[in-house]
Amino acid sequence: MAIDINTVEEAALEIMKRAAIDIPEDYSNGISAMQKTETGKLPRFVLHAMVDNWEAASKDRRPMCADTGVPRYYVKMGNHASVETGFIGIERALRKATADATVAIPLRPNRVHPLWRTEHNNNVGINAPEIDWSFEPDADWIDITTVHKGGLFGTDYRMLFPGDGIDGIKRFVLDGLIAFGKRGLACQPAIVGIGIGGSKDTCMQLGKQAACLRTVGDRNPDPKIAELEMELKKLGNSIGMGAMGFVGSSMVVDCHIEVGYTHTGGMPVSIHTFCLSSRRATARIHADGRIEYRTDPQWFTPYTRRETVEWNR
């Protein structure tokens, strides 16, 4: 049964609204836990103000932050899913939902041409919104996730080498977080995503996905990577910076790491911070047209993280 393309557009518009207005429960719980441990007066005030702001946004059904970021989509296609008008139809529906959401919610029209600064006042343009695709075996549904992430700061990349090891990664991450905090380049407390390996572009993608597409408390299935996630979270909260850069201990809500096989001579690393709004929402569209909404993208699956070919186990 082919999924109606109008259902895709309906779901995309709805998750745009949810991402802009409603804070994900996992992030909210993470902030609540930080309220109990933060000792600094000013960052504690900021944390309480954040919660008050979220409650007001939810009650008034208005965006939780004036800067609504740059909307983008992550689409996971079940291998057996079929959609009217195909992939081109999905792309068109997502672009139209973005334009409609910019007016209806409203979202701030943040997208402009990089050289001429022209805009269409709808967050749609050349290569905007971005749409990343992934696939899942033995499924006839489509998952559509939207992420509204700030598009300016809170990101860095460095080509390390195998000899730098885990200590080199720790130093890079701590240097980055300190620089973000001192220069006001991130809205912390943040979910920190770290990409390790792959090519340069893959490394950046992995770091952003780690920050935006995993929930607070989720651990990498590799126990050694999971241990490193927890260590980096602890280190990030020990540098003396709290909410919005004030002196405190609430820099990192959680730390997520994703890896990719890389060139033998290098160890590229990227770091990304997902701002204090942590705007994401997901819709699963079933073959019969049912739509289920959630805030956990479930982007990383055993199939996504598969390590080798099926006939070489």
List keywords for this structure.
five-stranded mixed β-sheet; four-stranded mixed β-sheet; iron-sulfur; single chain; alpha+beta; 7 helices; globular; 9 strands; 2 domains; 313 residues; 60s Ribosomal Protein L30, Chain: A
Chain-wise SSE layout:
Elements: H1 5-21, H2 25-37, H3 41-60, E1 70-78, H4 86-104, E2 131-136, E3 142-149, E4 155-160, H5 165-183, E5 190-197, H6 200-212, H7 223-236, E6 252-260, E7 267-274, E8 279-285, E9 291-294
Parallel strand pairs: 1-2, 5-6
Antiparallel strand pairs: 1-3, 3-8, 4-7, 5-7, 8-9
Helix pairs in contact: 1-4, 2-3
Mean pLDDT: 93
Task: Report the uncertain regions.
Answer: none
Strand residue content: 15-25%
Query: How many helical stretches?
Result: 7
**DSSP helix fraction:** 25-40%
Biggest sheet: strand arrangement: 2-1-3-8-9
Silhouette: globular
Radius of gyration: 20 Å
Q: Helix and strand succession?
A: HHHEHEEEHEHHEEEE
Question: Main β-sheet, in a few words?
Answer: 5 strands, mixed
SS-based structural class?
Answer: alpha+beta
How many beta strands in the DSSP annotation?
9
Q: Determine the oligomeric state from the structure.
A: single chain
Q: What is the terminal-to-terminal distance?
A: 34 Å
Total individual domains? 2
Explained architecture:
With 313 residues, this protein is of the alpha+beta class. It has two domains: 5-19 and 64-150 and 280-294, 60s Ribosomal Protein L30, Chain: A (2-Layer Sandwich); 152-274, no CATH class. The protein has seven helices and nine strands, in the order αααβαβββαβααββββ. It has a five-stranded mixed β-sheet with strand order 2-1-3-8-9, with helices on one face. Strands 4-7-5-6 form a four-stranded mixed β-sheet. Helix 4 links the parallel strand 1 and strand 2. The chain starts with a helix and ends in a 19-residue tail after the last strand. The relative contact order is 0.20. The mean pLDDT is 93.
